[in-house]
Amino acid sequence: MALIKIDAARRIGSVDKNIYGGFVEHLGRCIYGGIYEEGSPLSDEHGFRKDVMEAVQALHLPILRWPGGNFVSGYHWTDGIGPVDRRPRQLELAWHSVESNRFGTDEFMRYCEVMNIEPYICVNMGTGTMDEARSWVEYCNGTGDTYWANLRRQNGHPEPYNVKYWGLGNEMYGSWQIGRLSAEDYVKKAREFAKVMKWTDPSIQLVGCGETGWTEWDQTVIAGLAPLIDYYSLHLYTGSDDYYSNVLAPALVDFALESCRATIDRVRFNQQISHPIHIAYDEWNVWFRQRSAESALEERYNLADALAVSSYLNSFVRHSDTVKMANLAQLVNVIAPIFTSKEGLFLQTIYHPLRLYAEQMQEVTLDVHVDCKQLTLTADQERSRGSNSIAALGPFKALDVTVTSDPDGHELAIAVVNRDLEQDHTTTIQFADPATITRGQVYEVNATDPSSTNSFEQPDAVIVQERQLELEGGNLTYTFPAHSLTILRLHME
Ligand code: AHR
Fold it and tell me: Is 444 in the pocket of ligand 1 (CB under 6 A)?
């Protein structure tokens, strides 16, 4: 019998809603044909796909990163403003396509306004200059009688957009990046960008460009940018056709967050920096089957992928004192939870945990003790897409658990990913304080086969099953089925 012990007094941190954020890049059918399709009978007067908006709304997306991704390192934002028919069509080098610039800053801001989502803009530190970056801040946030603020007014938006979050470039360490930099060169360049962007609007929050969280790049960049940044970004993509390699890979998130947190703490102490530097996991997902640019990265997800996504979310919740923003890469069609055609859409398996966590998990993370079967994975067994073997991070608990409560401790949400492929786990759930559970609700994501996939033909192969929890007084015992996500929502008196 497994055991989950919960002590409501042991609070780890408050969950920032921004961990349920998203990301849209000018890549494949993410924007054009995804969130934006002018002239479609499914779109509104702005060209926004209404069916997509409805699906996005149910995800309670608090924040959206744009316009890239690799795309941003060749993007000149001024190409995307003003009359649409005069915007240049540009050769796009990150994904070897043509960018029509029909969707630009004002369209993105309108989307965020209509959807009540906080915008997060990443600036071009590849081919872009610091003057372009700071004038983008002025265009969005300027209130004075200045050229860029006036241009925004002329383009139909008298009020400033007040974009708070700005990223200092994307993956500038990568050989695939336009304008790749060494860590030292990135620090030099980013300092100047940061300086002029903050001079333009001191209220903005800056996100430094991180790698995985455990590399030399991360050490150098955190040390070099700590006085100037409010967030440090990390990226992680995992995935494998091997069930255990896939569902256990998000252990890398715990490793990354703990390593990176240690570096940030050390740098803040050594440099006596008093402002906090939080982690923004601003790209993360399962991504491995459709890797080539030709396939436009239109990944199809199965139940095992949904369990991996659940474990990513568990790691963010577990480290809620450190990670204050996370952006699933991406939102529609491209490695995404929502998949469209010209006629409609279906929800991928990974959509369901994303919606459930945003909807059901509460504001405070509680520490939790879990005693259960351990799973091991050897480097030989592991078949992962990248070079980071997770075998050394094991053994892994079969039950990956997080617990959250509301500030008063009356509402509890317990998220349990049972990663065991074969075995159900009957579990005692114990509370440190005597408390009576007066109501309980169960949300379960599962299917008979972990390779079950949703599609236009079978949109409901993997969905959320919801039912009332049957309570029988005393301690709670619950059986978590093999290869499933369960969220237990409890009301306590
Ligand atoms: O999300 C797809 C790509 O993955 C992004 O453009 C890039 O930042 C990362 O390598």
Answer: no
Is 283 part of the annotated catalytic residue set? yes
- pLDDT tens digits, one per residue of 283-309: 999 998 765 655 679 999 999 999 999
Ligand 1, atom 6: closest residue by C-alpha: 69
Specify the number of domains making up the chain: 2
Residues 146 and 74 in one domain: yes
Q: Which among 316, 343, 363 is the end of a domain?
A: 363
Catalytic residue status for 466 = no
Percentage of the chain lying above the pLDDT 70 cut: 97
The residue whose CA has the least distance to atom 8 of ligand 1 is: 69
Q: How far is CA 458 from CA 286, 346, 454, 462, in A?
A: 21, 9, 6, 9
Q: What's the whole-model pTM score?
A: 0.97
Query: Of 363, 395, 424, which closes a domain?
Result: 363
Cα of 70 to ligand 1 centre, how many Å? 6
What is the Cα–Cα distance from 149 to 443, expressed in whole angstroms?
48
Domain containing 431: what range?
2-9+366-492
165, containing H or E segment:
strand 165-167
Residue from 29, 70, 71, 295 whose mutation best tests the ligand 1 pocket (most atoms within 8 A of CB): 70
- Alpha-carbon distance 339 to 361, whole Å? 25
